[in-house]
Structures are given as structure tokens and as C-alpha cells.
Amino acid sequence: MSKVKASFEAAVAASKSLPEKPDNATLLKLYALYKQATDGDVEGKRPGFTDMVGRAKFDAWTAIKGKTGDAAMKEYVALIDSLK
Predict the structure, then answer these.
(1) Separation of alpha carbons 1 and 51, rounded Å
(2) Residue 1 has what pLDDT?
(3) Alpha carbon distance 73, 81 (integer Å)
(4) CA angle (19, 6, 2) in 5-degree steps
(5) CA–CA gap between residue 73 and residue 37 (Å, rounded)
(6) DSSP state of 75
(7) What does each C-alpha distance from 15 to 10, 36, 44 come to in angstroms?
(8) Where are the beta strands (DSSP E) in 1-84?
(9) What is the dihedral of CA 49, 54, 57, 63, to 10 degrees?
């Protein structure tokens, strides 16, 4: 396992025990970075206007389309570290 992936997995575990819950914008960024790191670019259709949460998640993930998995992992780790 690469050092980046190990750091990412440690950060994912740490994200579950942060001292306080991040604001919604930060949560969306974490979601998008996690999905980009684990699944790559977003696929499929944007959820309809009645699914506000799904739409916000889709938009956040789309905003970082093209970012490499390693870059997304590093950014995720840095963001989690800043929240500790």
C-alpha cells in the first residue's frame, strides 16, 4: 500500500472522531474529495431539484472533476488535519 493511500485511510478513520462537526461546505468538500479519490470522476445524471442533498453532493464532486486520485487523497488528508 502506498504511503498516500495509508495516510488517506488514516484520515478517513480520523474523520469519524473530529472534535466538532464541520460546516456543510466543508462536509461537501470532504465528500467530493473522498469520492474522487475512491471512485474517480463523477458519472451519471445530476439529481433532480427535489433531491437537494444529492444535487449538492453531485455538484461538489463535479467541481473537482479531473483531479487525480492521489491529489484528492492528499487534499482530503490535509483538510482532515486542519479540522483536528
Answers:
(1) 37
(2) 75
(3) 12
(4) 155
(5) 6
(6) H
(7) 9, 17, 27
(8) none
(9) -40
pLDDT over threshold 90, residue 13: yes
Torsion of CA 45, 37, 23, 55, to 10 degrees: 0
Length of the chain: 84
pTM of the entire predicted model: 0.94
Spatial neighbors of 73 by CB under 8 A, at least 6 apart, are 4, 5, 7, 8, 33, 37
- Dmax (CA) of the chain: 41
Question: For residue 27, which phi and psi values (nearest 5 degrees)?
Answer: -60, -40
- The pLDDT tens digits of the residues spanning 14-71 come to 999 999 999 999 999 999 999 999 999 999 999 999 999 999 999 999 999 999 999 9
